[in-house]
Design a protein that fits this description.
409 residues, alpha+beta, Beta-Lactamase, Hypothetical protein af1432, 2 domains, seven-stranded antiparallel beta sheet, 16 helices, elongated
Length: 409
């Protein structure tokens, strides 16, 4: 457990650290994790306000996690009304913190109640709960953070100390400011995707969110197995999540005749379509951040294949010309092969194909899951990095959960 001085110092440092996280989903997980560590909370949940409701966005639970080591908790998202009926709804509705010693012993005079359904389903026992609003500098509520079951040095669940409330509220204010910035970044990316969607109906918000989330899930498992440090994994998750959403943004440069053709493309049309990779990379040719660099890498490389039969090959991302020394006899660029393909490109290639096969298109129906999984196995070592395919199957429960969280409208 942290001392009071350590808590103050950690909060000051966290205020700086969380401003560095740009992606909304990665940020929400980080905020929840750090808030729990500050007060030794066994579990917690974060809600984000959407219109007039609270969206259950992320949850963490050390006790339940220990029952399935190495795998992320699987949970369903849902919404709550912002009213006085639930604990989170009350906090959002009134903008007040609630510090409840035992949610099973709430006075009947209170307007809100605790829903025991989750505890009954999971076998978990919720006891102490600290719930506080996430307020912007203008006083707007953008979410609710709920911390559950503080544990003392002996591991016993105890009430959250009143003396910790000011520090937690200070962190909550910092978190709200970071969430507001991340929401703006996400909105800008989604507006860019909406622009692409005007050209290509397949390029939708749910599709890009799924592809990005799949890629991050696979990366986490893959990098963890390889012994990559948690700090590097967190940094790359943030960059990958945003850049993967923009993998097909180069399609804005492709003719509507091809993009909106209600049938499979012929050979000449496919050659034109391939140009979306270099067009996308060129959009990020002026690189001011690691996000720009990663977005260029993803756009350029997500159609390369592990066996060297993909495209566009060894070309300059700034103009699509062949890199000297990589010309084939006919002057075309040699395709990249194996480890020549950047990691982010390999990840998004797998995530994108999985989502495309699992979704309906104008020229095909949605494949059933068995067909999709058989295809991925068949393409291991040819289209896809075999190690990443193996990793994909090891986190299949997480992949399925992501699909449920971002359904097509």
């Amino acid at each position: 457990m942290l001392t009071d001085r350590q808590k103050v110092n950690k909060i000051l440092n966290l205020g700086i650290e969380i401003t560095q996280v740009k992606d909304l989903d990665v940020l929400l997980e980080r905020i929840l994790k750090e808030a729990r560590l500050l007060v030794s909370a066994d579990a917690g949940t974060i809600y984000v306000k959407e219109d007039d409701k609270l969206k259950f966005s992320y949850t963490q639970n050390d006790t339940l996690q220990q029952r399935q080591p190495g795998r992320k908790l699987i949970y369903s998202t849902f919404t709550l009304p912002i009213d006085n009926q639930t604990i989170a709804g009350y906090v959002a509705n009134n903008g007040e913190m609630l510090n409840l010693p035992d949610v099973y012993k709430l006075p009947a005079t209170l307007p809100f109640s605790f829903n025991r359904k989750f505890d009954e389903l999971s076998g978990y026992r919720t006891q102490s709960m600290l719930t506080f609003p996430l307020k912007t500098s203008r006083g707007n509520i953008i979410g609710v953070l709920q911390l559950i079951n503080e544990r003392n040095a002996k591991g016993t669940v105890v009430p959250f100390p009143r003396k910790d409330e000011p520090a937690i509220m200070h962190f909550a204010n910092q978190a709200a400011a970071a969430i507001e910035r991340a929401q703006l970044t996400r909105a800008m990316i989604l507006r860019t995707i909406k622009m692409a969607e005007l050209r290509d109906p397949k390029e939708t918000g749910p599709h890009v969110n799924r592809v990005a989330a799949y890629a991050v899930a696979i990366y986490e498992h893959w990098a963890g197995r390889r012994g990559v440090s948690p700090e590097i994994i967190d940094k790359n998750r943030d960059i990958l999540r945003m850049s993967a959403m923009l993998h097909d943004v180069g399609k804005v440069a492709i003719s509507d005749v091809i993009l909106k053709k209600p049938a499979r493309l012929d050979e000449a049309e496919r050659e034109i379509m391939k140009q979306h990779t270099t067009a996308g990379a060129r959009l990020f040719s002026e690189q001011y951040s690691e996000f720009d660099e990663a977005s260029s890498v993803v756009a350029l490389n997500h159609h390369e294949k592990w066996d060297g039969t993909g495209y566009p090959g060894h070309v300059n991302p700034s103009d699509g010309t062949v890199i000297p020394g990589y010309e084939q006899r006919d002057g075309t660029p040699r395709p990249k092969k194996g480890d020549e393909i950047p990691v982010f490109g390999r990840l998004v290639a797998l995530a994108d194909v999985y989502d495309a096969l699992s979704s309906r298109r104008v020229y095909k129906e949605k494949w059933d899951e068995g067909q999709v999984l058989d295809e991925l196995k068949a393409c291991s070592g040819t289209h896809f990095d075999p190690e990443m395919v193996e990793t994909f199957f090891s986190c299949l429960d997480t992949i399925r959960n992501i699909a449920e969280r971002y359904p097509d409208h």
